[in-house]
Structures are given as C-alpha cells and as structure tokens.
User: Which sequence fits this backbone?
C-alpha cells in the first residue's frame, strides 16, 4: 500500500500480541515493568552507538517487537486488580461494608433496577479506586441518579454473576473486559448519604443532552421517532424499543444506531466542507484541522464519551492532524497510530466487540474497497456515488462477516440492499438531525420541520421493519466456532493476496487455506462434542437435554416461554443444529445405564427403584430424608423451578446424609458426560 510504514504497522501488531499474551498469561507472570525498562534501555544504547545504521539493522526490528510485546503484556497487567495497589479488592470482605461511590455513567435499566457504572472512592474508610456496577431497586422511593452524584451505602459487594447455562451470553466476561469485576445492590432507602453532583464537563454535557431530548419531546415528533433520533444523533440508546432494535439488527444496519465511526466520518466530511473557506487564510489548513478536532471531541463529549465514539474521534483526529501537516501518509498508518494510542490508554479495548468491529471495518474498507472499485469505472457522479457505496458496503461486510457471525450467530442476507439504500441517505438524515437538535435547543424549531424530520425517521423505521420481516433472507442459528473464525480470515487474506499479486506462490497459499478450511470442517463433523446429559437452570421451568452421537433430544415442559425458546436455540446452535427432537418431560428415563428420576409437584415414586440420579422439580412435596433412606440415590439435583427455601432445606438434608447435591441456582446447569 502506497506510503504505508511497516515500522508503525509492525509496532501495532506487536503491541496487540503482547496484550493478548497478557490476557491469557498475565496472572502467572511477574510484573513486567523491569523488563520493559530494560528493553527500552537496550534500544537507547543501540541507537546511541549506531545512529546511522540502527534502523536498518535486523536487531532493531527484533528488539522493537520484543519491547512492544512486553509493553503490551505489562499494560494488560496494569488492568488486573491484583497488580493495582489502590484497588478496592485489597480491602474487600464477605460482609457488608461502607462504600463511597460516585456515579460515572447511566446504563440502560432492567425490569427491576436502575443501573449505573460507578467508581468506588472509599471502602470502610480506606481510599481506593475502581469501577463497579451499582443497581438500585425500582420502588416508589427510587429516583434516577445523575452523573457525578456521590453517595454512601452499607452493602455487600458481590462478584458479577456469570451465565447459569452454557452457550449463553457471559455478562461477567463482558464486564471484565471493561475492567469491572463486582456489583453492588441497594434500595434508595438504604442510601446513607447522598451528595449532589459537583460541576463537571461530562456532567454538564449529560445535562445538556437531556435538555435537548426534553425540548424535542415537546415537539410533534413521536416517542418512537424520538428514540431513534436520540440514538442516531445524540448517542443515547436507553429509550430504544427492544423490538425495533432487533429489527435494525436483522436488517444489517444496527451500526447506524450507535454513534461511531460512520457518524463521526459524516460529521468530519460536513466540517471539511463548511470550513473549506478557512484554508484561504494564512495557515488555514492548521486552523481548519484544529477546529475540526475540537468540534469532533465536543461532539464526543456531547454524546456521552462512549468507547465507540472515542475510538472514532481519535482516528479522525489523526487524519485531521496528518492533513494539517501536509504529510503524504497512508490511511493504514494513521489507523495503526490511533490503534496503538487507544490500546495504550486502555488495553481492555482489544477484547471489546465494538473495538474489534470498528477497526476491522475500517481496515477492510481501506484494503479491499480500492480493488473492488477498480473493476468498474462509473460514467457520472450518481453512478459513482452508488458504486462507491456498494463497494464500501461489500468490503466492510467481507471483513466483518466472519467476526459478526461468530459473535451473533446470524447473518442478514439483505445487508447489501439495505446499506446501499440507507448509507447514501444517512449523511442527509444526520445533517438535518443536527439542525433539528440545535433549533430544538434554542426553542425555535418550526413545527413543519419537526414533522418532516419525524416522517423521515418513520419512513426509515418502516423500511427497516419491512426488510427485517423478510425471514427467508435472515440466516439464524449459524454454527460458527472459533476454529471457523480463524480459518475464514486465513482464506480471506489468501484470496486478497491472489487478487493483488497473481503468481504461483499466492495461488498455492490460497489452495492451502481452502484445504485447511475443508479439514477443519471435516474434523468438526467427524468429531462432534461428546455425549452428555444436561439439566438447565431456568426460573420456574424444567428443561433437560440428552445428546448422543448425532442426535439431540430436549425434554421440555408442556408450555415453552420465549425465554426457554432462546435457551433451546442457543443450545441447538452450539451443537451445529444436529438432528433435533423435542419430547415432553418423562417421569423417568435411563442414561448410561443409570435411571434418571424426575420428581415434580406430584412426587409419585416408582417401586423397586435403587440408586437413581434424582432431579427435584416444581417444589416437589417429597419427604427427602425418607426418600434417601429408601432408594439410596447416587446424586440429587435441584433445578430452577423450585423455591430457594426448598433448595436450602434439601441441601441441608443431603449434607447430613452425605449425598452429592447440585443446585442450579448456585452452580448453574448440571452436565454429566
């Protein structure tokens, strides 16, 4: 790629490799700061001794890579609580503690709680610092808190719960990748002290955004349309209807609802045009670039300084600075520099899905789109715009396809059509949106303009809804394990190599990648996951699964709720949608020559049964002590359909009788292989 700098690209790759090593091995390694300092000293000595030839020496490349790998590993270590001297984990106990918190971010509430990201400032009087999830129960006294509010409570700090069943979204892992390991629950009445928010830039920005939303809510724009405007222009998705959000995802345009690189790029282009006259002044390029960077960061602050918008603004800030300096540089150099800076600021970004998708999308566009665009030369501006939109969409989807399928197990078949229609119009929709928000804040928004913009959003919603309802083109429950992910990108890289440089070597690598892909597919088919019995955890319901060879049998209750349907779907997808049958829960069946007895609310016992595995369900009224004495069960399992008080009593009885006991409330799903 023209003007690309291998030095910068290699540095970015080495830094990412170091962070990845830290993710898997940092706990078992000593603190790497001395090694980082030693390598920096060695590089300095080599450079001083060989100023003219050092950069051309192979030792420079090796030393540089080792340095940035070590630096990446050390930076990840610095995010681990055990390596942070002022982290609250060093003061944590199993009892209730006096906790001083400050609200940092307002999260989307769930059915029962208001949810916040907060920073712990002190624990039992000991100063400390780290982020935590704070949940306040919704009741008649509860009031939403604002950013910057300080409060003191006395509660127990608990680890964030992981999934109770395999193949489900791991919320604990998601928060860990944001540096959050614990959560704390309280009611509003249990707050001991509440201090109003001190003045801050972020708090003022949040108040201004809420003021804008309030002003827009006073216009003729409907609540449904306003929720989309909030997400599209203001970066606040809390008001979005879950069903509408899923429709945008099914249509393949979910990215337009998250203020990120697409929105910042459009704003960057608008500012370039608006500030073009400034370039006629002396040092006009510098003035324009500084103005653009300041405007972008103000917009990032206004939209809540989310990770996605900060990533995008950082990237475009580098672009603006490079343009101001008038340096001929490749886009991939600027991308690599922003990549390094963001990971140096927070190495946990590397494991966040949004970070991966945004950088991969930009990388795919700058590497794949020029080749796709070269296959056809449009004759006029309109066809050129359409062709560029199509090639950009296709290039981004080629790069993002495997990763998005891996994370979400679905692929919108109409993404190409949807993005080809929506993206060319999005610049205009956002531009009008900025004007509408500004006029609304000044209370001079004409009702006719509000109605027009509301209708535009309504048309957009209707179009997205129509696309999302074309079920034949939405491919769900796609089995795509990690091995497929790496093989897919190997194939894509080899095909790009062939397209750029057609020779025998690139052709052999491509054929080899296809051979590896076929080998992985064959291995996954011939050696599926081992046979097992699984008893899921589901509140107020009982669900069992039996996998034998190429067949899955799910034992389900009489009625299946949407939540249970999602659980079944994720289980089927994780097992490659093998032959699947669904049967009603039996009273008893055999697995590995062992009787499995399911006792429900009736509690009827078969005669002559000895040493079964027993599943207690539906708050069975059995006298457990007598039952154990009569049948001598091998193990007793209590699922989520039982009251917790019953489960506690059964656990105590099993402990006295020395019978292995498994509660899905505490240990999650029971799996017997």
Assistant:
């Amino acid at each position: 790629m023209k003007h690309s700098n291998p030095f910068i690209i290699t540095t970015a790759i080495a830094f990412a490799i170091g962070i990845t090593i830290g993710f898997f091995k940092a706990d078992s390694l000593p603190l790497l700061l001395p090694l980082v300092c030693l390598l920096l000293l060695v590089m300095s000595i080599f450079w001083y001794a060989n100023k003219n030839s050092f950069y051309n020496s192979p030792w420079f490349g090796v030393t540089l890579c080792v340095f940035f790998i070590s630096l990446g590993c050390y930076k990840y270590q610095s995010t681990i609580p055990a390596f942070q001297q002022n982290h609250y984990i060093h003061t944590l106990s199993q009892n209730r503690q006096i906790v001083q918190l400050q609200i940092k971010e307002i999260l989307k509430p769930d059915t029962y709680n208001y949810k916040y990201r907060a920073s712990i400032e002190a624990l039992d009087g000991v100063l400390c610092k780290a982020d935590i999830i704070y949940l306040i129960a919704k009741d008649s006294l509860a009031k939403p808190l604002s950013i910057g509010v300080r409060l003191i409570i006395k509660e127990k700090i608990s680890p964030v719960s992981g999934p109770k069943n395999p193949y489900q979204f791991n919320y604990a892992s998601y928060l860990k990748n944001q540096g959050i390991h614990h959560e704390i629950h309280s009611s509003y009445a249990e707050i001991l002290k509440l201090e109003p928010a001190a003045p801050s830039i972020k708090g003022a920005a949040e108040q201004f955004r809420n003021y804008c939303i309030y002003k827009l809510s006073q216009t003729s724009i409907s609540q449904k349309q306003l929720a989309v405007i909030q997400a599209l222009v203001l970066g606040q998705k809390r008001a979005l209807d879950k069903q509408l959000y899923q429709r945008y995802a099914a249509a393949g345009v979910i990215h337009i609802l998250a203020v990120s690189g697409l929105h910042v790029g459009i704003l960057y282009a608008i500012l370039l045009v608006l500030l073009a006259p400034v370039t006629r002044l002396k040092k006009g390029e510098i003035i324009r670039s500084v103005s653009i960077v300041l405007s972008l960061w103000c917009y990032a602050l206004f939209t809540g300084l989310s990770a996605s918008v900060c990533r995008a603004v950082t990237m475009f800030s580098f672009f603006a600075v490079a343009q101001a300096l008038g340096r001929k540089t490749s886009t991939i150099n600027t991308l690599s520099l922003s990549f390094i800076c963001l990971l140096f600021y927070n190495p946990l970004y590397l494991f966040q899905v949004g970070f991966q998708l945004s950088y991969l999308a930009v990388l795919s566009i700058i590497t794949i789109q020029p080749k796709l665009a070269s296959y056809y030369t449009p004759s006029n501006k309109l066809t050129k715009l359409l062709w560029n939109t199509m090639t950009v969409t296709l290039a981004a989807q080629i790069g993002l396809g495997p990763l998005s399928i891996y994370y979400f197990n679905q692929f919108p078949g109409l993404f190409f059509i949807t993005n080809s229609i929506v993206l060319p119009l999005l610049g205009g929709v956002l531009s009008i949106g900025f004007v509408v928000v500004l006029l609304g804040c000044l209370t001079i928004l004409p009702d006719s303009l509000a109605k027009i913009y509301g209708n535009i959003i309504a048309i957009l919603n209707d179009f997205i809804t129509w696309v999302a309802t074309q079920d034949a083109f939405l491919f769900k429950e796609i089995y795509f394990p990690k091995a497929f992910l790496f093989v897919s990108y190997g194939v894509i890289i080899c095909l790009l190599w062939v397209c750029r440089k057609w020779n025998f070597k690139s052709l052999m690598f491509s054929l080899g990648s296809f051979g590896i892909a076929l080998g992985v597919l064959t291995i996954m088919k011939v050696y599926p996951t081992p046979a097992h019995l699984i008893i899921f955890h589901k509140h107020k319901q009982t669900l069992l699964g039996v996998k034998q060879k190429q067949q899955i049998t799910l034992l389900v209750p009489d009625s299946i709720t949407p939540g249970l349907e999602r659980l079944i779907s994720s289980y089927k997808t994780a097992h490659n949608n093998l032959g699947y049958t669904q049967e009603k829960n039996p009273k008893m069946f055999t697995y590995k020559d062992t009787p499995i007895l399911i006792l429900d609310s009736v509690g009827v016992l078969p005669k002559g049964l000895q040493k079964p595995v027993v599943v207690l369900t539906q708050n069975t009224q059995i006298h457990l002590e007598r039952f154990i004495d009569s049948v001598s069960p091998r193990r007793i399992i209590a699922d989520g359909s039982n009251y917790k008080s019953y489960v506690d009593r059964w656990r105590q009885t099993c402990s006295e009788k020395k019978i292995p006991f498994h509660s899905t409330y505490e240990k999650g799903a029971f799996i017997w292989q």
Remarks:
- The longest strand covers residues 126-137.
- Residues 498 and 504 are 9 Å apart (CA to CA).
